[in-house]
Specification:
The chain is an alpha/beta fold and 372 residues long. The chain is built from 14 helices and eight strands. This is DUF3800 domain-containing protein.
């Protein structure tokens, strides 16, 4: 898509179930397994608005605010929307996240291979942690993920120590190839458990669990894919804009519960380089030399937010249906998904970024690509 830098980006999400550490085992992502966050850059002029309204009329959409579920059931409308975005050279940025995999990644990065220094952000380290996360997401029993979630809520030193032991016990009994991955998990988990035992209890707990955020009511939130997705999209926009984001405004759908947290995490992303943390990713640039503005809009007041909602809602529902629906996908929906994937240019940060196991990505007809 476009090479020029837009000054306005509209962002919305789909499939947000909040803190993943609170999801109960009896309803474990049965309906909303996938989370998606979509952004696109565009100056919404009169011509864009007129074509948006014309497309709604063409597809008999009468509601003043179109919802993503409604658009998903009208794939021809979404195809026309993609034509509109392409005609206006709008860069698109999408994060699609398998929530189960996201929790597993947190286990790997906090308990198995915790961050100790710059070596943990090098390509080899990213590759190794990715291999472990793929293996654990596929073969580890769900009870380990639920135990991690319970540890986040309880912050109990003994429960965390026991979880280390349970992870090691599972990996020791795993006979699924490649068994050397299980052996690597055992080795790293044992080393991390030794470090855990040496630390004072409070420090040990802090190291083993994700860094929590706090909502306006003061409640701690532990595993939030919307925050990671937002900061990654921001870094992707930073790459697309060649670090020139001082004139950029990010318009995000109104977030009564997460607005302050998003602002805080935006600032943390901008300050990463100052703390010596360097993430060398192909599709995202976390070395910010300038800061964009972040504002919140209500969806019914903004065509841009509605467009982002349609994009996020479509891809979250499509992947959910394609992987777990059990029925063939409508050809128009497959065409939309393929078009979104093909339109991206990773070197510029645009397109679809999958936070999911490699086997799921391949099932969708896409060959996984390294991002480091």
């Amino acid at each position: 898509m476009a090479d020029q830098t837009a000054e306005q980006y509209y962002i919305d999400e789909s499939g947000n179930t909040g803190d993943l550490s609170t999801v109960k085992i009896d309803s474990y992502f049965t309906e909303q397994r996938m989370f998606a966050l979509a952004a696109f850059g565009c100056t919404l002029d009169q011509e864009f608005g007129d074509r948006w309204e014309a497309n709604k009329t063409k597809h008999r959409i009468q509601a003043p605010e179109i919802k993503s579920k409604q658009a998903y059931d009208k794939p021809r409308f979404v195809l026309d929307l993609l034509d509109l975005l392409e005609a206006h050279d709008c860069p698109i940025f999408i994060e699609i996240v398998d929530k189960h995999f996201f929790v597993v990644v947190n286990i790997i990065e906090r308990m198995i291979v915790p961050y100790v220094g710059e070596c943990d952000t090098q390509p080899n380290a990213f590759w190794m942690k990715g291999v472990m996360a793929n293996y654990m997401a596929l073969y580890a029993p769900p009870e380990l993920v639920h135990a991690f979630a319970e540890c986040c809520q309880s912050r109990d030193h003994t429960a965390i120590r026991d979880l280390y032991k349970r992870i090691i016990f599972w990996a020791q009994g795993s006979r699924v190839p490649p068994t050397e991955v299980a052996e690597g998990i055992i080795r790293f988990a044992r080393d991390s458990l030794k470090d855990f035992r040496k630390l004072p209890k409070v420090k040990a707990v802090e190291r083993a669990l994700p860094i929590p955020d706090k909502n306006p009511a003061g409640k701690l939130l532990w595993v939030l894919p919307n925050l990671t997705s937002f900061t990654n999209v921001y870094a992707r926009i930073n790459r697309f804009a060649r670090k020139q984001v001082s004139e950029v405004t990010l318009f995000h759908d109104e977030q009564l519960q997460f607005g302050d947290i998003l602002l805080h995490n935006k600032k943390l992303a901008e300050d990463l380089a100052q703390f010596g943390v360097r993430l060398s990713l192909k599709t995202a640039d976390f070395e910010f030399s300038q800061a964009a503005k972040l504002q919140f809009l209500r969806s019914h007041d903004s065509i841009g937010i509605q467009v982002a909602d349609v994009l996020a809602g479509f891809i979250a529902r499509y992947v959910q249906d394609a992987v777990w629906g059990g029925t063939p996908m409508h050809p128009d929906k497959t065409a939309i998904f393929s078009r979104l994937v093909a339109a991206g240019d990773g070197s510029k940060g645009t397109g679809v970024n999958f936070v999911a196991p490699d086997n799921m990505i391949r099932f969708l007809g896409i060959e996984p690509r390294s991002n480091f």
